[in-house]
Amino acid sequence: MKLVKSLLLGSAAGLIAAGGAQAADLPLKAKAVEYVKICSLYGAGFYYMPGTDTCIKLGGYVRADMVLGGANDYGFRNSNATFNGGSNNRLTSYYYGRARMDLTVDTRTATEYGVVRTFADMVFSVDSQTASGSTPSTLSGGTAGLGLYHAFIQFAGFTFGRTVSIFDAPWTGYPAGGPDTIPGGSNFVTGVNQATYTADFGQGVSGSVSIQDQGTGNGGGQSNLWNASGFAGSASISSTTGAITLTPASTAAGAALIQGIYGSPDWGGTRSPDILGQVRVDQAWGLFQIAALAHELNSAYYGANETTGHPDMKWGWAVQGVLSIKNIPTGAGDSINMQAVYADGAAHYVFGNISWPQNFSMYSGSGIGAYQSVGFAGISDGVFGAGTSIETTKAWGFRGGYNHNWNPNWVSAIYGGYAQMSYGTMSKGLICANFAAAYGTATATCNPDFAIGVVGVNTVWTPVKNLAFTADLSWTHLDQKYSGTISGPATAVSAFAKPAATYELKDQNSLTLLLRAQRNF
């Protein structure tokens, strides 16, 4: 019995030990792996953020530009703001380059109020250096730059933050590609701070209202507001006779005038945002849009401090119509895009926003024996002088383009734009009084009105999806209304290395070729 009992106990102990060993060998239950899942709710490229119901999409592009005959990236050669782009001398760069990376982050979350969306667009660029006319000449640029083009939240029809203006056409400033400086409409492609509400009425019909921060967006909605008495300190106009009294302008003032600077910049603080409204019809045949805005002009003071007084605030306005016709008979995917705009006291909405200098000049040869010729112009919302009210400037323009698809790999386009600016009687009197004091009237006729036009062609080759090579050729013509010749110390512009001499007042032209490679992702 003792032997049987020992065998039973030993067998039981062995079974228990074996069971324990087998239990120890069993794997522990692992945590579930959270795989990144495709989010098909909002189109290709969206993924669920792990552990959330929010979908995210990353995108952007890498771009390399080379501009021949221009002094800024695909922009305005006539600008004195682009460091001797229009000097046409040894300080003028014959080419200009840029390397850029753009990164976009788009998130969307479905809620009981609809989709909550955030979007951000960050840009990193390195540009070529350009020369200024100091003695000795110095180089500027060539360093990395960071920009935030868009950053907004959308919720229940509202948009809060930085993005394009509802005044813009859907193609912003590019009806068929082209440079940043096609006149004839607004161009907030890099964004402007705003609060906007959009109502969708169905069938492609929508309406929007917006308040827009005129102090943002590469100048926001503001152009120049010139105090024409700032040069001489005593320019004034009689309220009864209209006669202008002006202390002779200094040589420095004359050098400013020849660059299209018609007074001292004299904006006061912003008191009201721009107020905008828009109606759009977007259907299979194309698109129609009309937009209008009110723009406040609030100046600083007549003189150096608040005891000198100031003109009353004044409102400007602008209206713009947009038309796009899609799938025209010339080919599938072909389109014609057009827009027209009129502004009174809101010139920035006619002459675009990005890369548009608010005063510019360009030099070339003379056919009448003068040292050189020069054309210059200045853009402004309004002008005032000592003791006067603000007089708004008026501008109108149009732009358009035609896109043609030769095949899936080749697309060509033609485009153009034109705009005019007109100064009022009082404004011309104040500006031309300064002009006469600096240059005299014996050999020159003063008229700050001007027109400018741009036409161009481009071709884009897409050898593989999301990789494009572009060649774009554009011609710019400045039709300035000054005539005759000017001379004397006031003609010297040190920033352009231009000496005091006799210059012919003449229309100017420029030609720019852009070569671009871009990879979207």
Automatic annotation (TrEMBL):
Which GO terms label this protein's molecular function in UniProt?
Answer: porin activity
Keyword annotations for this protein, in alphabetical order, are:
Cell outer membrane, Ion transport, Membrane, Porin, Signal, Transmembrane, Transmembrane beta strand, Transport
Q: Which GO terms describe its biological process?
A: monoatomic ion transport
Q: Where is the signal peptide?
A: 1-23
Q: Which domain of life is it from?
A: Bacteria
Residue ranges spanning the membrane: these are: none
Lipid bilayer topology: Multi-pass membrane protein
- Could you tell me where this protein is found in the cell? Cell outer membrane
Q: Which Pfam families match?
A: Porin_2
Q: Which GO terms describe its cellular component?
A: cell outer membrane; pore complex
Q: What functional role does this protein have?
A: Forms passive diffusion pores that allow small molecular weight hydrophilic materials across the outer membrane.
The UniProt similarity line reads: Belongs to the alphaproteobacteria porin family.
The free-text domain remark for this protein reads: Consists of 16-stranded beta-barrel sheets, with large surface-exposed loops, that form a transmembrane pore at the center of each barrel. The pore is partially ocluded by a peptide loop that folds into the pore lumen.
Q: What is this protein called?
A: Porin
